[in-house]
Amino acid sequence: MNFVVFMLFLLVTKHFVIDFPLQWEYQWRNKGTYGHPGGLIHAGLHGIGTYLCFVWIDVELALTFAVADMIIHYHIDWAKMRLNARYNWRPDTSEKFWWLLGFDQYLHSLTYITMIGLIA
Fold first, then answer.
1. DSSP assignment of 57-95, as one string?
2. Which of 1, 18, 23, 106 is most exposed by smallest CB count within 10 Å?
3. CA–CA separation, 69 vs 43, rounded Å?
4. What mean pLDDT comes out for the span 23-39?
5. What's the Cα-to-Cα distance from 46 to each of 9, 37, 50, 91, rounded to whole Å?
6. CA distances from 105 to 20, 73, 102 (A)
7. Which residues contact 7 (CB under 8 A, 6 or more apart)?
8. How far apart are CA 86 and CA 103, in angstroms?
9. The total number of structural domains that make up the chain
10. pLDDT for 16
11. pLDDT tens per residue across span 33-66
12. How far is the C-alpha of 102 from the C-alpha of 100, rounded, in Å?
């Protein structure tokens, strides 16, 4: 497995674990309130995960990417939650809920591709 594929594997695995099994109700219910601890905890977990994905390469790089991922992830999720609330998009009432979820995941993937691109 080459370096780029390995890093992408680490990051998308980290993303799945933190965005789904480790995201409890307190996090997802409160991500739409700017500055709420629920959203901050969720973004912080992503930062820790990103740090762990990169620390074996360089500690300073890992810390930089971790902070960037926390900030970017937080704002992508916050914007998604605000749009869903503003337009009342729900999983059982609007296909736009699902489009927005897909776009959210796409933006997170672009974040990881950009990080890998900066070092590969």
1. T-HHHHHHHHHHHHHHHHHHHHHHHHHHHHHT--TTT-H
2. 1
3. 8
4. 97
5. 15, 14, 6, 24
6. 12, 10, 5
7. 53, 112, 115, 116, 120
8. 17
9. 1
10. 98
11. 999 999 999 999 999 999 999 999 999 999 999 9
12. 5
CA distances from 69 to 65, 95, 118 (A): 6, 28, 14
Q: Which long-range contacts (CB under 8 A, 24 or more apart) does 78-85 make?
A: 78/31, 78/32, 78/34, 78/39, 80/31, 80/104, 81/31, 81/32, 82/32, 84/32, 85/32
The neighbour count for residue 34, using CB atoms within 10 Å, is 12
Mean pLDDT of 16-39: 97
Unique residue bearing structure tokens 């594997």:
9
CB 73 within 8 A of CB 111: yes
> Residue 79: what pLDDT?
98
pTM exceeding the 0.70 threshold for the entire prediction: yes
